[in-house]
Structure formats: structure tokens, C-alpha cells
């Protein structure tokens, strides 16, 4: 892989990891409540991870995408471990300690649910995106982008909301279903709204380094 491709892949992977880590930190502390809908705070920018994942899958292939997802998973877990270690250390005041625990404490149920949802949905997104690409090679890229994202984020919503909201926050099933519906509708809207970003990525990035988009098999000279 050329140096330009390496840099591009590194930048996309870094952005992917940062969005994932920040989304999980915000999700642990708050819900976003409006007169019209309620969604977990971490959901605000989390769907961007699927956009980046599909851009990487389109340009670099499923293996590099899995590598990116695994690296983000490991980085996110390491971040949470560090936060829990810091939580065990004495703080300068009780107020600061309480504020820290409110912001960064993660229950075991929320931890398991969020990591399971991320792992399952991202793997499903990679598999379904690659399936649509092979099965319908002449179809427009937005079809496989939107179809794979909608399918995988449906699974993500089901796992994380049942785990974090229903079991972890002890909200009623009716309220959980309402949040789940709002969350998924928001994700669908986000997928459709960011379709131009997906197209910009898959068309602009290869032009930067003027390389062939077919990276499944590269020839060493």
C-alpha cells in the first residue's frame, strides 16, 4: 500500500476511533430530551462511524475495515479501563469525585451492551456492505451504503437500547420502545443526510493519491 494510502487509512481510523470513544463517554452520562423525541446523548454523532466504515470498505476492502474496527474497539476499551482506574484514586474534594462518577462511571450492563452492539453491528455492516457490492456490482454505491447501514444500525439500536436504557437505566418498556424508535429514525435520517459525505469520500480520496480504487489485490513490483 502506498504511503498516501497509509496516511489516508490512518486518518480515517483515527477519526473513527475518536468518534466512538467520545460517543461512549457521552452516552454514559445523559439522554437528549426534546419536546418531540428522546435519544441517548452518545447517538448524536455515533452514526458517523458507519459512514467512515463504509468509505473504508469501499476503498480499502473488508479486511482493512475489520482492522480499523478492532483497533477502535481496543482503544475504546483501554480508555474505559483508564477512566475506571482514575475513578478509584482519591480526588481533591467530594464534589469533584461525585461529578467525575456521574460523568464517567459506566455500569457493567451498559459496558456489555454498548460493546456488544458495536461489535455485532459493525461486523454486520462490513459483511452486508461487501455482500451488496459483490451481489450487485453495477448498482449505485449509495444503495449498498444505505442498505447495510440501515440493517446494521437496526441491530445496534435493539441491543444497546435494551441493554443500556431498559436494563441499565430501569426505564419502562414503553419508554424504552419510544427511545428505540426515535433512535432508529434518527439513524435513518442521519444515513440519508450523510450520503453526500459517503460519495465525497469514495470519489475524492482516491483522486488525492491518484491510485486505483480496486485494492482487494495489490501487485508488488
Structural account:
With 221 residues, the protein is mainly α. It has one domain (3-209): Arp2/3 complex 21 kDa subunit ARPC3 (Orthogonal Bundle). 76% of the residues lie in helices and 3% in strands. The chain has helices at residues 3-27, 48-60, 62-88, 94-104, 108-135, 141-168, 173-193, 195-209, and strands at residues 31-33, 38-40. It has a two-stranded antiparallel sheet with strand order 1-2. Helix 1 (3-27) runs antiparallel to helix 2 (48-60), helix 2 packs antiparallel against helix 3 (62-88) and helix 3 (62-88) packs antiparallel against helix 5 (108-135). The radius of gyration is 19 Å and the shape is globular. The model is unreliable at 215-221 (pLDDT under 50).
Topology (elements, then pairings):
Elements: H1 3-27, E1 31-33, E2 38-40, H2 48-60, H3 62-88, H4 94-104, H5 108-135, H6 141-168, H7 173-193, H8 195-209
Antiparallel strand pairs: 1-2
Helix pairs in contact: 1-2, 1-3, 2-3, 2-5, 2-8, 3-4, 3-5, 5-6, 6-7
CATH top level class name: Mainly Alpha
Q: From N to C, what is the helix and strand string?
A: HEEHHHHHHH
Q: Please give the largest β-sheet.
A: 2 strands, antiparallel
The largest sheet has its strands arranged as: 1-2
Fraction in beta strands: under 5%
Number of helices: 8
Shape label:
globular
Query: Uncertain spans, ≥5 residues at pLDDT below 50?
Result: 215-221
Total E-strand runs: 2
Membrane topology: Multi-pass membrane protein
Subcellular location: Cell membrane
Organism: Chlamydia poikilotherma
Protein name: Probable queuosine precursor transporter
